[in-house]
Design brief:
223 residues, mainly alpha, single chain
């Protein structure tokens, strides 16, 4: 069953109110557009049939006008031959053709009013259809934005992201431990203790004493 009963309902429809009440606005707007397009096709088809009817009626009127002229000529001919009875019969046929032409003329006038209605309806339907398509574009943009937000939240706060950062932290911890082991191996090799300093002083005094003794011994030998 359609959303609208037909053209008048579509024209009178409040798009905002319809979409606000909808559980699934995207689905509803697609249905609305489909029904509007379908209705527009039907209205155009009705207008086309009306135009065809008018053309056919005008052709009949043209034939009836020719027929009136023909009966008038026959009436004149009958009078010229003193056949008043035939002239009268011809004029009666002429009047019938005239009456039919007038009736068709009135029907064409009625169809002209219908055409004005079709034209107004088509204009309004096209405006409503443009509005619906604009709303559809807006809804699609909002849906895309919402889906992008969901994806971004999944990327920044999702389980896979948390797992990846946890792995990064494990790797950083391993690097810290490796650097710690390297630093521990260098400990003691580059720093002198207080005992080391005093041992160096004692060794220096011993060397000086030995050097003095060697000098004294050499001096005795020379003297």
């Amino acid at each position: 069953m359609g959303i609208f009963s037909r053209t008048r309902d579509i024209i009178a429809a409040n798009m905002t109110e319809l979409l606000d009440r909808a559980e699934d606005p995207a689905k509803l707007i697609r249905m609305i557009i489909f029904e509007m397009e379908e209705t527009l096709v039907e209205v155009r088809a009705s207008a086309a049939r009306t135009i065809a009817d008018q053309k056919e009626m005008r052709r009949h009127i043209a034939k009836l006008n020719s027929l009136q002229e023909s009966w008038l000529e026959k009436a004149e001919l009958a009078l010229s031959k003193d056949r008043e009875d035939l002239a009268k019969a011809a004029l009666i046929e002429k009047q019938k053709a005239s009456d039919m032409a007038e009736q068709l003329g009135r029907e064409i006038a009625v169809l002209d009013e219908s055409m004005k209605g079709y034209e107004a309806d088509i204009t309004k339907l096209q405006a409503k259809l443009r509005e619906a398509r604009t709303r559809q574009s807006s809804i699609n943009i909002r849906l895309d934005a919402a889906e992008n937000k969901i994806r971004m939240r999944e990327v920044t706060h999702g389980a896979r992201t948390s797992e990846a950062f946890s792995r990064f932290e494990d790797m950083e911890r391993r690097v810290d431990e490796a650097e710690g082991r390297a630093d521990s191996l260098a400990m003691g090799s580059g720093h002198r203790t207080l005992e080391d300093e005093f041992a160096d002083l004692s060794a220096s005094d011993s060397i000086e004493a030995e050097l003095a003794a060697l000098k004294a011994a050499a001096k005795k030998k020379g003297g």
